[in-house]
Amino acid sequence: MVDRGFYISRRWRQLGPFTKDQLRALGIKRNTLVWDPKRWVWLPAEAIETLIDLFHPRGFLAWLKAVWAGLGALHTRKAPHALTGG
Q: What is the CA 29 to chain-centroid distance, rounded?
């Protein structure tokens, strides 16, 4: 995926566009607001899928997706009722 150019918000000002490598060099934080043009909203940098590896080790996204899939499978199972024992 080609970086489309990221805009960040600092001190109530919009700055950019920056490439992912430039954001890494700037040392942006997880909670730095980044403009997401797909959703037309400012989001914390760690919520932008293409930037997640700046804050989490490689493979984290695959692990997270697996965890969410597992939680979804647990949620769809019928849990035993505590009072009836069944």
A: 13
CA dist list (Å): 48 to 3, 14, 37, 69, 77: 12, 17, 11, 20, 31
| Cα atoms found within 13 Å of the Cα of residue 27, Cβ hemisphere only | 0
The pTM of the whole model exceeds 0.85:
no
- Amino acid at position 32, single letter: T
- Which tokens go with 28? 């942006």
**For 6-38, how does the pLDDT look when each residue is reduced to its tens digit (9 = 90+)?**
999 999 999 999 999 999 999 999 999 999 888
Would you say residue 1 has pLDDT above 50? no
